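Q: Give me the 3D complex with 5-O-phosphono-beta-D-ribofuranose.
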Amino acid sequence: MDGKIVVGVVMGSNSDWEVMQHAARQLEDFGVPYEARVVSAHRTPDLLFEYAEQAEARGLACIIAGAGGAAHLPGMLAAKTGVPVLGVPVPSKYLKGMDSLLSIVQMPKGIPVATFAIGEAGAANAGLFAVAMLARQDGQLAERLRRFRARQEAAVKSMTLPEQP
Ligand code: RP5
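A: Here is the predicted complex, encoded as structure tokens.
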């Protein structure tokens, strides 16, 4: 990694940051240069178009897009760029993110969005997925990912449970 931004983390509102920061944190932990931006599909549609149209030329390898409610941000970005879009459903107030999930995952055939779980785990996994994609071309990153998984495995193997009767 030479410091050039390779992943865009975008979200419909700064209220999504609480969830989306978990994607950013993974990228940071693995030393992947990223940017975080608020881009709203329905409140800043021109900005969305501009961001998507410039993504490829700017060298983004993927875009992680999180939104809540009628979450059309990931789908609209995917419609406007060939850069792979990873969608994160952000939990919403009334439908707890089921609306976000269905809006993102149910893309009609032809314009895919790789959709992750609702909330924090989905955001973190989107970050890890971006790392895994980039690691195919970057041996050092692949080694970091291998070590991360080994640490995770060791942590689970050392888990204990309360005494059983
Ligand atoms: C969506 O509306 C955003 O992605 C956010 O999840 C939701 C609520 O936005 P705010 O009202 O908090 O700005 O566009």
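A quick observation: The CA atoms of residues 1 and 32 lie 7 Å apart.
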